[in-house]
Amino acid sequence: MSIEMTTPRVQDLDDVAAVLSGWQHDAGPLHLHPGDLGWHSSRGAARTAASLRAWSRNGRTLALGLLDGPDGLLRMALDPDLRDDEELCRQLVADVDDPSRGVLDAGAAIVEARGAERFSQLLSEEGWQPAEPWTPLHRDLSSGVDAERVRGAGVRVRIEVIDPDGADAWVAVHWSAFKGTPLGEEERREVRQRWLTMADGPFYHRARSLAAFDSDGNAVAVTTVWSAGPGRPGLVEPMGVHRDHRGLGYGVAISVAAASALREMGSSSALVCAESSNSAAVSTYVAAGFTAREQVADLQRGA
Question: In terms of domains, do 89 and 221 share one?
Fold first, then answer.
């Protein structure tokens, strides 16, 4: 039977997350994770389902892709047992590289397919080129997490689990960390609603949002962590420190807290991926006990 590509429905999202969870392994690549779907779900369950592509054969899911954002980014994971399957990899290339197939539009695009060496090789043969490198980081959780390190570089913080009543603090820090512009009331309402949509979505039962507060009660760092189930690696996505409080150890503190939360949720390890050019982020995770793995590069197609 031939390989079929479909777009999942909202009612399929639990099954998609379950399949992705089963593909997460400590020794495997940091490819598409259920947490990536969870973070994407701040756009709503319907839009998240519409952004997914699934490849299957004889009722078995072989590969999954998430169209992430407006810039032509396709984030993928393949069944670990089928990463070298020639028929699958050639079908993926045919679907991804041809705009008429309904995956990527014509023009500039990026494919993130970590660990899928044969698929990436075939894309390269079609003219796709390496993009900016990323650094995957891994923290083993089997031996526990030293709670004292939550204090970071000599600072004391209070870690809180954020619920909807505390979303404003989380939103303000996240905005500062990733936008860096003043947070107006309209932006605050919009981003808060997106956080609430995520928290009320189909994946958030796998998640926990945290905030770190300094000794004056200021929210200084935030993160959300995502479980793939007991005994499997969990994902840190996202993590950010307020711009007014950088360089004080709060990034280390919230990253250790993230690892601790994942261990409490049954995860075997904590995973995160940072742009290799962002040396401050990589250093922060390393200081929090993560080990940097070999750099990986996405593949890009020009306009």
Answer: no
Strand partners, 273: 136
Does the CA dihedral 173-178-183-184 come out positive or negative? negative
pLDDT in tens, 141-152: 998 887 655 555
Global pTM reads 0.95
Its domain, for residue 119, covers 4-132
| Structure confidence by residue, pLDDT tens digits, 212-238 | 999 999 999 999 999 999 999 999 999
Tell me if 303 is assigned to some domain: no
SS (H, E, C) 125-184: HCCCEEEEEEEEEEEECCCCCCHHHHHCCCCCCEEEECCHHHHHHHHHHHHHHHCCCCCC
**For position 156, what pLDDT does the model report?**
81
Could you give the CA distance from residue 85 to residue 88 in angstroms, rounded to a whole number? Answer: 5
DSSP bridge partners of 270 = 139, 234
Burial code (b: 16+ CB inside 10 Å, e: under 16) for 171-198 equals: bbbbbbbeeeeebeeeeeeebbebbebb
Same-domain pairing of 162 and 123: no
**pLDDT score of 159 more than 60:** yes
Do 49 and 145 lie in one domain? The reply is: no
The closest of 61, 60, 32 to 48, measured between CA atoms, is: 32
CATH, residue 233: 3.40.630.30
Query: In this structure, is residue 71 part of a structural domain?
Result: yes
Q: Do 157 and 111 belong to one domain?
A: no
Residues 139/291, Cβ–Cβ less than 8 Å:
yes
Q: How far apart are CA 60 and CA 296, in angstroms?
A: 28
